[in-house]
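Reopening this ticket.

The earlier resolution said the output was attached, but the attachment link was broken on my side. Pasting everything inline this time so it's all in one place.
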Amino acid sequence: LTRKCLDVMGATPFDFVYEKRTVVTGFDEDALVMVSGKEFSLIRTVGGKVLYQGKAASLGIKQSNQAQGKWAELTITKSPKIVHITLGHDGLHALMVAEDGSVYFVGTARRGEDGDASGGKNVRRQPKPSKPRKMSRLESKFVTFASCSSGTSAVVTRDGELYMFGKDTNNHCDVTTGLVTDLKDVQVTQVCLGKAHVVVLTSKGHVFTFGINNKGQCGREFATHGVSQRDGLNITMAEDEDENEVDDNLCPPGKHK
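Inline output:
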């Protein structure tokens, strides 16, 4: 019998080997997907389990007997079968979509990326890692897809709706629900978050982009002020002065050198 192999390259803060090597989880189930963030990596297995490696405390696990470089199963309440996982580049949180349409948040929420309406994206929180927990704001929705970036979460529902939470939700999300209202007339199937821009795929194969466009990452004409538009819609992404959301070399308006 053959087994699927998963190879990785490069070092991380929790794995200092640079050479290409095969991931050995120590579990019988084959690994299907692997995602990596700033302090931990996750693997989704063929059976719907989620494994983790890295800093256990970043996943809300206060005490762990996990050896350095070893994989362990991430405990999720009621052990749902996970069908999709996502973790943003340099991110501190992950989203896990279950077979029943529920979505789980794990990691650290600083700008409302967990969908907690009590704070909001403009409210700075004391960073506190959280164990896997359901995003209660989406309990009435059947989620099929999700994406993360550093400080932002996005999910797609079975009805084709796109919801976003966190720092990059200025002007285009309903403040109560998180629904991206300007895309409510299209059937969204997938979403992908970049550092400060968003790419959306619809059921008709159309692609919508919005957000910071300082390097042409929105796939359209270069926007001098870092904002792309769709049919006159002016969408600005929240800039975090402490996190260098826009390239430091981008000249201020009217002061190009």
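Reporter confirms the inline version is readable. The two ends are 62 Å apart (CA to CA). The domain at 7-190 is CATH 2.130.10.30 (Methylamine Dehydrogenase; Chain H).
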